[in-house]
Design goal:
Chain A is an alpha/beta fold. Chain A is 49% helix and 7% strand. Chain A has a domain of 374 residues: Methylmalonyl-CoA mutase (TIM Barrel). In chain A, the strands form two sheets. In chain A, strands 1-10-9-8-7 form a five-stranded parallel sheet. A five-stranded parallel sheet of chain B has the order 2-1-3-4-5, with helices on both faces. In chain B, α3 links the parallel β3 and β4. The relative contact order of chain B is 0.18. Classes of the chains: A alpha/beta, B alpha/beta.
Amino acid sequence: MATTPRQSDLERWERERFAAEPERDAPFSTISGEPIKPLYTERDLPADIDEAIGLPGEHPFTRGVYPSMYRGRLWTMRQFAGFGSAAETNARFRYLRDHGQTGLSTAFDMPSLMGHDSDHPRSEGEVGREGVAIDTLEDMETLFAGIPLDQVSVSMTINAPAAIMLAFYVVAAERQGIGPEQLAGTIQTDILKEYIAQKEWCFPVDPALRLVTDMIEWCAQHMPRWHPISISGYHIREAGSTAAQELAFTLKDGLTYVERAVARGLDVDDFAPRLSFFFNAHIDFFEEIAKYRAARRIWARELRDTFGARDERSLLMRFHTQTAGVSLTAQQPLNNIVRTAVEALAGVLGGTQSLHTNSFDEALALPTERAVRVALRTQQIIAEETGVANTIDPLAGSYFVEALTDRMEEQAYEYFAKIDELGGMVEAVKMGYPQREIADAAFRYQRELESGARKLVGVNAYTEGDDEETPILRIDPEFEADQVRRVRAVRERRDAQQATSALGALERAARDPGRNLMPLLLDAARAEATEGEMVTTLQRVFGTYSESPAF
Amino acid sequence: MPSSSEKKIRVVVAKPGLDGHDRGAKIIARALRDAGMEVIYTGLHQTPEQIVETVIQEDADAVGLSILSGAHMTLVPRVMQLLAEQGADDVVVTVGGTIPSEDVAELKSAGVSEVFTPGTSTEDAVAFIRGAVGKRA
């Protein structure tokens, strides 16, 4: 039985033993700025630890969303991939599957993310650079050629035009003879975090939220194996937020989507089981583990107590994790293998359902095959060699981890209160509140780095030596011309009347706030309307969005 | 630091193209302002034409282009071309972002004064701009 140290014993220990030697010169705070004590003891545990953390697969799910967790099934190894043409990305998908990847994840290029066809004037120089160019149904079919969509789960990282990409995907599967009810996977869709952090938008906030609710509603009815949204903190963190801000803003976004769907008339248990999340795994190891555990507990409590969810599956904060791109350095890139491994380990010890590990060459470009193989092997080594997946939530009961988990939760609720004071998350976003918090945190961190208070190995510490020139992935500029030809060819050969008619119907439906636009988008996809045409059609009704510049 | 009788250095910090990664641009903008410069941040999704128009309207001494989308070899030369066409090629042009080393040389031969790659300190960026603008005065 653990003996709780008396307060007087701890004070004596600190005064006489610990203080006897000077502390080294270091911040002793997390990367988010949270001060950390030299020692945590049983006194730092919550009063009723068993109630506070529960058992795996049981409320409040602190220890994991499922009873068996990795004893039953390892996390999905899902490497984000995409560049150039659909054919090239299809080849990369097959390479990754051949090397043991268990789920697919699609990165789109900037024009696709922003709703522009490859031949749009704004697309010049950008096609295929940050991800794969998808303009048409034909591109989507090429992307998944030879990949059985009823057997592989697929994630698509796209937000503002998510409804359109989902339509392309559903129709591509239809053409493989597979119905939407058989499709497993996720589409990111989380538009609030776009205004907050990733900054990829097509429409103003309110119509964008209508589209999100349309997707949640339609998928609840037609795609029981699909996650219509991946409520994300990754990008919020990459933009410079603290761990607590990442946690708070993500969960608040999620609660906002739940509110909207309930306001539409949906029963929370009809859609909440298909909501999913996406978090960053940054380099401050224990802070990240505490963040995931707190997230599960908060989500479960809010869904049960605030929204009255009765189905236990509605309470599960299931999440994907990506190791922090922003932690990678261009200097001494091989060091990034270590960073990614540590971050991946945090994700696993935090109970993630799926994981992407960054490649070591990603500070400057998309990954080469060799680099992405190492990233995948990192996950496989963690899974097969380290033993961390032998038991569920191994860090439970750790004085430090439980104290951090509680602190993270406390900070999240402080942010929830502030956001509620502003009138809710949508208002807060329109006012620029989370954006400012993030910019301030980013600036603070930069100051710490530049003063040397915080070390970044290879950049402001241990800067001697560098690795040989790291070969990086180059996108063939010829590809852009090919893609432009491809999209124009589709417009030429399709039934023009059918496409025009479908777009007309889409526009009319968009003007009616009571219509769910998914069926209209599916028809437009079948009629081979391009992404850009569908977006432009919707912009005629919804308008566009631009951010007021502030720094 | 310029004395109160000296004109403040005017810098446009710009985000060309579709790239939405603005963390660095905002930090640089703040650092330049804290160092006593007049900073105009264009915000996101600017075309080269819009950026050059802002540079000219604001009578800027320098422009910092921030690009993390891989589209720099299209967008930066276009900005340089427009600046030259509009007689503003004395403006100091710097680029920041995820720029591979092979491209740095090419950008510099296009007239870019300096490229700030990941790990650059704001102190170095500020000092460079101050120095480069000073040389052109």
